[in-house]
């Protein structure tokens, strides 16, 4: 063999050897990668399994407390059948937006023409029960409508989360300390008493239930069997829902026969007053305030001046009943939404004043 042939053969063998080594390394690298993936892949699954075991242990830990509150083993097991933690609930606790609407923006939705029209339809259908609730509890029927309309759009949207699962998820996570564990036990008692079955115990992600959006702790003191059918059904019975809302407001201090308040026009130069500074309506009239709708000021009762958007927005005189509505939801915009929605359903006109930045269409 010629020298150049020998050199060529050596070079060929060298190239072949390098290719082989590369191929082997590639195979080994792929195998190592696959092995690493095989080890890594089950980690989320193992974590989920661990969380499930932890959740199951948490559920078992509830049994002695539930039993002490009169919950049977059968009710307890039925309530938790197939229940697992709900990741969507936990996510909602982390994503409560810092976004805040202005009062005008909030009311544009809360007292929309569509909500007013639906409210008038619902009122026509259930006027007998609303009148009965007003007679029994002394709460203005249109305020009941306002609460019902804002809470669940008159029962058309009550939430699609299983209350036991939501509360168990929050309690297991320790969200807000022991609050949701207590609510969970009270929800089990509601099931035990037969007011609703697990399949129909639906509500919000935070456990607010039915057409009234009561938390379980509100159910026992405020829910009523207004329909007289042997159970307090705030989920599917409109009479029970409106009666329970009226009972809640009355027990929080609603003054029968007294208005929530009025939109008012201030004298030139405006006026300032401390929040919740109640003085007689007659005193406000003496100071130059008048009702925006042209009506007379009441001869009885006291009111405080409310200017939720400051000097640039509408002004109101509100009675202590307005503060009672805030016991349902402590936001001023919510309470004002309840009142104005109720007024519109009753046939009163829209506000005369305009919210800062609102268009005429939004205001009217």
UniProtKB/TrEMBL annotation:
What's in the keyword line of the UniProt record?
A: Signal
Q: Show the Pfam families listed in the entry.
A: SLT_2 (PF13406)
Question: Where exactly are the transmembrane stretches of this chain?
Answer: none
Give the residue range of the signal peptide.
1-40
What the entry lists under InterPro entries is as follows: Lysozyme-like_dom_sf, MltB-like, MltB_2, SLT_2
What are the residue boundaries of the Transglycosylase SLT domain, all occurrences included? 55-343
The protein's GO terms of the molecular function aspect are: peptidoglycan lytic transglycosylase activity
User: Which Gene Ontology terms describe the biological processes this protein takes part in?
Assistant: peptidoglycan catabolic process
Its recorded name reads Lytic murein transglycosylase
Q: Which species does the entry assign this protein to?
A: Lichenibacterium ramalinae
């Amino acid at each position: 063999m010629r020298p150049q042939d020998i050199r060529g053969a050596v070079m060929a063998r060298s190239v072949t050897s390098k290719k082989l080594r590369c191929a082997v390394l590639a195979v080994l690298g792929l195998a190592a990668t696959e092995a690493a993936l095989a080890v890594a892949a089950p980690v989320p699954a193992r974590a989920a399994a661990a969380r499930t075991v932890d959740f199951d242990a948490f559920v078992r830990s509830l049994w002695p407390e539930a039993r002490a509150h009169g919950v049977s083993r059968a009710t307890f097991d039925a309530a938790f059948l197939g229940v697992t933690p709900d990741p969507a609930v936990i996510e909602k606790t982390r994503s409560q937006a810092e976004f805040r609407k202005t009062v005008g923006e909030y009311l544009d939705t809360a007292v929309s023409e569509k909500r007013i029209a639906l409210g008038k339809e619902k009122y026509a259908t259930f006027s007998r029960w609303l009148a009965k609730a007003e007679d029994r509890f002394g709460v203005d029927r249109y305020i009941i409508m306002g609460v019902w309309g804002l809470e669940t759009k008159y029962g058309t949207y009550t939430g699609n989360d299983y209350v036991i699962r939501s509360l168990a998820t929050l309690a297991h996570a320790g969200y807000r300390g022991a609050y949701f564990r207590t609510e969970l036990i009270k929800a089990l008692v509601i099931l035990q008493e037969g007011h609703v079955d697990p399949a129909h115990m639906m509500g919000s992600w935070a456990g607010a239930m039915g057409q009234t959006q009561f938390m379980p702790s509100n159910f026992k003191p405020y829910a009523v069997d207004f329909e007289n059918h042997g159970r307090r059904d705030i989920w599917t019975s409109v009479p029970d829902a409106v009666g329970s809302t009226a009972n809640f407001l009355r027990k929080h201090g609603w003054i029968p026969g007294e208005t929530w308040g009025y939109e008012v026009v201030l004298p030139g130069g405006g006026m300032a007053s401390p929040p919740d500074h109640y003085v007689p309506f007659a005193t406000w009239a003496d100071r130059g305030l008048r009702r925006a709708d042209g009506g007379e000021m009441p001869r009885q009762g006291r009111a405080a001046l409310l200017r939720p958007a400051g000097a640039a927005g509408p002004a109101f005189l509100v009675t202590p009943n307005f503060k009672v509505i805030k016991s349902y939801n402590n936001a001023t915009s919510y309470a004002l939404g309840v009142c104005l929605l109720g007024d519109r359903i009753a046939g009163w006109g829209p506000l005369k004043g305009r919210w800062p930045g609102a268009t005429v269409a939004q205001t009217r």
